[in-house]
Design goal:
- By secondary structure, the chain is an alpha/beta fold.
- The protein folds into two domains: about 5-170 and about 210-240, Rossmann fold (3-Layer(aba) Sandwich), CATH 3.40.50.720; about 170-210 and about 245-315, UDP-galactose 4-epimerase, domain 1 (Alpha-Beta Complex).
- The protein has twelve helices and 14 strands.
- The protein has helices at about 10-25, 35-40, 55-65, 80-85, 85-105, 140-160, 185-195, 215-225, 245-255, 270-275, 285-290, 300-315, and strands at about 5, 30-35, 45-50, 70-75, 110, 115, 165, 165-170, 170, 200, 210-215, 240, 245, 260-265.
- Strands 3-2-1-4-5-7 form a six-stranded parallel β-sheet, sandwiched between helices. A three-stranded parallel β-sheet has the order 6-8-12. A three-stranded mixed β-sheet has the order 9-11-13.
- Helix 5 packs parallel to helix 6 and helix 7 packs across helix 12 (about 300-315).
- It is globular, with a radius of gyration of 19 Å.
- About 45% of the residues are buried.
Length: about 325
């Protein structure tokens, strides 16, 4: 098994690399990113190469040289950032995906590309959102994710490419900082509370969104790719989740452990509109039935672990 992680310097990739190394062996994992400083950082703990995933020729060369047979395509411009540059978001998100699909077709690679709750929209049922439902997003990020799901399914049915993905909710991590997503507040709050005891939230206090702690997200990445393909009726893409909460609920849980913490709100209208268009909670029954998905972390455990990890990190 030779695995290439494209876009390895982001929030997921930074922690997926060591998870994959532990699971499949250090020598079998190659990290790739566009920026030289990120590649330099990654090379300290893994095999790393510089790669622009929108450059099909360079991408193919890495696949050939490294004899890759599984790709994790994590390249993405996230929701809030994508709204500032929608054309660039389309170019990056879809360019990297199309190259990944074509290369996987040519070299026989299995391909994982994460989708998102951003693929849903205002017309989607917001409570226990079904696996198969209306998907009419109102962000370029969401449009890219829906298009990616459809394109990945097309390459599976038309060309036999082993495409698989999950619809990630917000991912909470104590590793790399998030990079411009609507759910970023649920990570940023821990840093601010540990550093200064105050946090100003850009999301309305009663806006519910599904969340997943990073250890569960990493397991989803590997467990789905290792699942028996004969049992997969849905490939692109599976709902996965572990917890659903609003800022108010998250902050109340944090105050149990940091009684003096203060929380305020300064609503970002763009992020608030995006949050309101997304589901309050997902139904992940299909993932549980088809490949045995089961989250291990809940809100209480996540908050305790995050506070502990951030305190150590900032110290």
């Amino acid at each position: 098994m030779k695995i290439l992680v494209v876009g390895a310097g982001g929030q997921i990739g930074t922690e997926l690399i060591p998870h994959l190394q532990k699971t499949y062996g250090e020598d079998n994992i190659i990290a790739a990113d566009l920026k030289s400083d990120i590649v330099e950082r990654l090379s300290k703990s893994s095999r790393a190469v510089m790669l622009d995933a929108t450059d099909a020729g360079a991408y193919s060369e890495v696949i050939r040289e490294q004899k890759i047979n599984r790709i994790y395509n994590l390249v993405a411009l996230l929701s809030a950032t994508g709204e500032k540059n929608p054309q660039i978001a389309w170019k990056i998100n879809m360019g990297a995906l199309l190259n990944s699909l074509e290369i996987s077709k040519e070299y026989g690679c299995a391909l994982f590309t994460p989708s998102s709750i951003g693929a849903f929209g205002e017309s989607t049922p917001h409570t226990k959102t079904p696996q198969d439902t209306v998907m009419r997003p109102n962000t370029m990020y969401g449009v890219c994710k829906v298009s990616g799901e459809l394109l990945s399914d097309y390459y599976y049915h038309r060309f036999g490419v082993d495409t698989r993905s999950v619809r990630f909710p917000g991912i909470i991590s104590n590793g790399a900082l998030p990079g411009g997503g609507t759910t970023d507040y649920a990570v940023e709050v821990f840093y601010e509370i540990v550093k200064i005891g105050n946090f100003t939230c850009p999301i309305p206090e009663n806006s519910f969104m599904d969340m997943l702690y990073m250890p569960d997200a990493l397991r989803a990445c590997t467990e789905l790719m290792d699942a028996d393909p004969a049992k997969l009726r849905h490939r692109n893409s599976f709902n996965v989740t572990a917890m659903s909460f609003s800022p108010e609920i998250l902050f109340a849980e944090i105050k149990k452990h940091v009684p003096g913490a203060n929380f305020n709100y300064d609503i970002d209208p763009v992020k608030a509109a995006i949050a309101d268009s997304w589901p309050d909670s997902l139904d992940d029954t299909c993932a549980r039935e088809e490949w045995g998905w089961k989250p291990e972390w809940d809100l209480s455990g996540m908050v305790q672990d995050m506070l502990k990890a951030i305190r150590v990190k900032l110290a």
